[in-house]
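Anyone else keep sequences and structure tokens together like this?

Example one:
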Amino acid sequence: MWKRIELHNHTIESDGTMTVQELVRYLELQGIHAFSLTDHNTVSGFPGLTMACDSQASPMEYINGFELTSYYGHLLCQNVSAYIPWDDIDKDFADSLFQRVHEAGGLAGPAHPFSLPFPFSNGMRWSMNIHDYHLIDFIEVINNAHPMSPDNQEAILWWESLVFSVTASVRFPAWTYTVRSPWTAFIPPASRWRNKRRLFPFPSSWIMGSVPAPPASPGDRCLTGNETGPD
């Protein structure tokens, strides 16, 4: 089953160009079946989500979220009901941020981890140290606001390296990535599917967009997507 979902969206509550209502209407017109609201460092858009989604011709599924935005990188926090403080952030120990999101019943993953660093885009590149990589629930591997090479390609390779590190001698066939009308993409590490409060019923992937045909391997993990606002 293929389902279009978009888990990285911004509105005028942070640096987007649409209201919550306009975003919901836009996503519906794009054929998106479910989405997450992930404004930068704010949950102020939450109150209007239910009414906006229920007012559509076909009520849309959604989850609450936000994008923790720091000088050391951006962390997408999904399935949270309230803002999670991070003013005591430690660049050398990002684990505590992931743990806080998990304690709140959410999932967390780095957004556009290989963006151009300072002085071109201060804070966009992930530069925090993670000591326990099992804390990562997903990695945003394709973001259409960033070039496929090197940004997105490096993110894909990072995810692959983490998967290989937990699959020991298992070798996956070479993958060919064809990005067509991309949508923001997330590929959760195979070792880190949290059964508690899983967001959507997919066994091995979060699908953010349409692809010509599902890949033969590994595990039908192929994700693409298109962000509806700035990073």
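And example two:
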Amino acid sequence: MTTLSHSRLHSSCRIHGFSVRHSLTYGLVVGIWLAGWATAWAGTVVEPLPAVSGQVATSPVLPVTLSPLEQELFADTTDGRLDGHSLLWAALVAGGVDDPARIGRYERRLNTLVEQWRGLPACSGSARQRAQAVFELMHEELLTGGYRIDATNLPTVLDEGHFNCVSASLLYCYLAGRFGLDVRGLELPGHAMSRLYLDGATIDVESTCPRWFRLIGDPRRQAELMEKTTGFRHDDRQRSARCREVSGASLVATVYYNRGVDLLGEKRFGPAVEANVKALWLDPSNATARGNLLATLNNWAIREGEAGAYNEAVGLLRTGLALQSDFRPFHVNFVHVHRQWTEELCRRGRYTQSCAVLLAAQRDLGDEPWFGRALAGVYRRLSEEGKWPSTSEEPPIGPLHAGEHFISDTIETPEPGARDDRL
């Protein structure tokens, strides 16, 4: 059985198995998120499955709950940009702040700091001087609690001084913008930085390292400092080849993505799905959030199957296949869960129901030969025990082969090693 682990960046209208719950109608946001997957979902029909132990089989309900402030956030970012709110406001909302008064307090605090800094000579000099001064003042007056890998949310930074690469980059982008500077986020495999646009050139800034600007002429010392602070190492060629520039809504999406990684690690699958869906709403091109959404559905289905909740497990895998039909772990585990399910039904002598389960699965994955072999085994058992419904009826599959036993058919893959490359 395939269990996936994805990296971290420093995841009530029902539509084919997804359910979106919120206090106000929010179809526009849902429509934006689904736009990229409309083709894949359009032809998908979720069939009700036969019950096990008297329970009615249903499609999965994957709740995505938007707070009132999140509704404002997603409405503001329908065009992929933050138009009516600041980056600070958006990051605080993504970090879980749902009280406008609390957001106002944070905004006033930073406004006061910005006004104080404006009176400093370094903050009124050239663009390069302002960029360095704002960066170092941020570390001196805000990022005072030290690096902490789970400190993604800005309230953690502003209340405790702890930070990680996502929160430090977000804060630097916001503060630099207040001084007329163009700073954007950089997403790398397992890491986040900032990119400063300056006089027709760019400077990539490790947001977690207070002395970064002072070491720009010494790449070796920069690499050592980054590794000491974050434990992360990369060379210039890797950085340039694999980095992705993000700003505005896409930068805020990394907050939701990190939350999804934490929740997946805690095996809180429903909230992890919710977090990754929100990340994709803000940044539809975020391949890491999409990968974690698929991994969360996959691992959630495995957990449900191990608990004997086969209906739920199959529903989750069907939802995953609707999102990405060529995702191999869904295929592997779809077979594996059906093997578990039909084994249990046959042990109870419920062969007819086992046939119905397999026929439904065969409609979903018609190119998977295991279901045909499994049906052959069940039909053979029915025939041997004299329980075939009518002698005029024949199994709707090929001829039975001697010695074919569906119970021995399994498709499992080893679990990959866990990765925890964090942003």
